[in-house]
AraC family transcriptional regulator (Candidatus Acetatifactor stercoripullorum), 112 residues
Amino acid sequence: MDSHINEDLKISKLAQAYSYTENYICSQFVRQTGITLKQYILTKKLTLAKQFLENGLSVTETAEACGFNDYTNFIRTFKNHVGCSPAKWRKGYYICSNLAECHIQDFSSFTK
């Protein structure tokens, strides 16, 4: 699944591929991991997005590369889960204490 994280993953396709119901797949995933399949996929996509942004990809390129079909949805989702916009993350003005909280800081004052 991780190797297909940038694709439009659907639980229905996964269930069909393994001949199980969607409910069974979802309940087993939660039982094994403690999080929902949707949460897992989103966390993986956002982790990949942060790596792409850190390596210089544009926000648009990153959204597409991570399988987000809607640019605006990517920005909103990134900001809600990471705590800062993808553009600010890309510019390197971040110090994150954890995924839920992102403190913005301008490092230009340290280079003078």
Remarks:
- The radius of gyration is 16 Å.
- The helical segments are 11-18, 22-33, 37-54, 59-65, 71-82, 86-91.
